[in-house]
Specification:
single chain; 505 residues; mainly alpha; Growth Hormone, Chain: A; membrane; MFS_trans_sf; transmembrane; transmembrane helix
């Protein structure tokens, strides 16, 4: 039984190291987009290379995050967490000294592996260490402080790009990573061997999942070339995806048990997740470019301009979750995507000569309110749709789905709206394509709203709600812990199991 109290010195150290670890991953998901135009100019990279700078990280992170949680359960959560932190720091160092785009992209893929090891581990350490009476508050603080890290990311990224240079966007990860590893080794207890999960690892499933994402992403990014190699890669990616499903059906210990999708509510909410996070991923990739390339703002101004969305999430997400508890998730999950769609349509006014106060700020406020409305209820509904013992798995699957949707959007959106390899060097052409992209993102969000309205129902009384009530990251939903052995983290065993779903009142 974990017995560390939050108010104790050891509890403070555990919270500090887990916040430092998760904040690095969240920070990297927000700061890099702001640096992309400068990276492209300094490394003479085309738009495809900039897409890969984002997606190489997301492919390995999304494809391996469930395996990362399982490794922690088997070998010890602290050990895998420290390995992930040091791996992430080493890859960040290589990113910071990369002489060309190819090295940078390869290092970003390695960064994603480190993120997949430490992200589920940071939350699992809280679950495995703190006394049950303090666990909920510890998770809330972890989520809130991590959100602050994500919030300052665009501002910090812009300041670094305009100041010491874009390489420091990556190099800045190294000192906190070293500090994080030292604190973990000295102050964080290792999980007992008796608590570790049995069974074999689904390495084949993890490899097939990551390979499918990588090949499909490659085919989408390089589709403009019309090369037979691109077509072969696309087909091979689809074959790998089918093979992944077949392997997961037959594995005794699958990375992603497919029977979790027997819950229609769980499947439907993941459909909503795919729509909204695809739109978010495409928006934040292109918006940072639009504000610098077409509008002409500095990296610092562009990063600061995007702060309202994250600030609103930090301030209001917990209240949004409470409202959804009272009225049910159907209305928030229907209205939230529509508000986000309206915000993205308003972003079509943000072009050359745009004013921040009259053009950009209204659009970002509407977008942020939409995110506030839908993100917390989305997480809660995912967890309420499955048995309590599988809440950690459900959260991990939903998290991986959100990341996969974002990386596919970053790969596909420039292709769909006609952005050429040199589009980010041509302000007028980029502005036109950005307007088309915002309309397409809005359409995807409307589709998510329709799915929610048609399929989401109010969970029965007694269903559990997420301990992560403060949402600060607009890139992905937070991971939710799980006490039962397996998915890397923990829900309280005192939580009653959910009753069957009932129709919306």
């Amino acid at each position: 039984m974990p017995d560390v109290r939050l108010a104790s010195p050891q509890g403070t150290w555990i919270l500090l190291t887990t916040v430092l670890g998760s904040s690095m991953v969240l920070l990297d998901s927000t700061v890099v987009n702001v640096a992309l135009p400068r990276i492209g100019r300094d490394l003479d990279a085309d738009l495809a290379a900039l897409q890969w700078t984002v997606n190489a990280y997301m492919v390995t992170l999304a494809g391996l995050i469930l395996l990362g949680g399982a490794l922690g359960d088997r070998f010890g959560r602290r050990k895998v967490f420290v390995v992930g932190v040091l791996w992430f720091a080493t890859a960040s160092l290589v990113c910071g000294v990369a002489p060309n785009a190819g090295v940078l992209i390869a290092a970003r893929a390695l960064q994603g592996i480190g993120g997949a090891l430490l992200t589920p581990g940071s939350l699992a350490l809280i679950q495995a260490s703190f006394h049950p009476d303090d666990r909920g508050r510890a998770v809330g603080l972890w989520s809130g402080f991590g959100g602050i890290g994500a919030a300052v990311g665009p501002f910090l990224g812009g300041w670094l790009v305009d100041g010491p240079g874009w390489r420091w966007v990556f190099l800045i990860n190294v000192p906190p990573a070293v500090l994080c590893a030292l604190i973990a080794l000295r102050h964080v207890p290792e999980s007992d061997s008796g608590e570790r999960a049995p069974g074999r690892f689904d390495v084949l499933g993890a490899v097939l999942g990551a390979l499918a994402l990588a090949l499909v992403t490659y085919a989408l990014i390089e589709a403009g070339d019309g090369s037979p190699v691109v077509a072969v890669a696309g087909v091979a990616g689809l074959v790998a995806a089918v093979a992944f499903v077949l392997v997961e059906q037959r594995r005794p210990h699958p990375m992603m048990p497919l029977d979790i999708f027997a819950s229609r509510q769980f499947t439907a909410v993941n459909g909503v997740t795919l729509c909204v996070y695809a739109a978010f991923g495409g928006f934040f990739f292109l918006a940072a470019l639009q504000l610098q390339v077409a509008v002409g703002w500095s990296a610092l101004a562009a990063g600061t301009a995007l702060l309202p969305t994250t600030a609103l999430m930090l301030l209001l997400s917990a209240r949004s979750g409470e409202l959804a508890d009272r009225i049910g998730p159907r209305v928030p999950l229907t209205v939230g995507p529509l508000l986000c769609a309206a915000g993205m349509l308003l972003m079509t006014r943000v072009g050359p000569g745009a004013s921040y106060l009259t053009d950009a700020l209204p659009a970002l406020l509407v977008l942020g309110l939409g995110m506030v409305t839908l993100v917390a209820p989305l997480t809660a509904t995912v967890l309420a749709a499955v048995d309590t013992a599988r809440a950690g798995l459900a959260s991990g699957v939903n998290n991986a789905a959100a990341r996969a949707a974002g990386l596919v959007a970053v790969a596909a959106l420039p292709l769909l709206v006609g952005m050429g390899p040199e589009a980010y060097r041509e302000p007028a052409a980029f502005d036109e394509a950005f307007g088309r992209a915002m309309v397409l993102c809005a359409a995807v969000l409307v589709a998510g709203s329709v799915i929610a309205f048609a399929t989401v129902r109010r969970p029965a009384q007694g269903c559990r709600h997420p301990e992560c009530r403060t949402h600060g990251s607009v890139a992905v939903p937070p991971l939710e812990p799980e006490t039962e052995k397996g998915a890397g983290g923990g829900v309280s065993r005192e939580t009653p199991p959910p009753a069957p779903e009932r129709p919306e009142d």
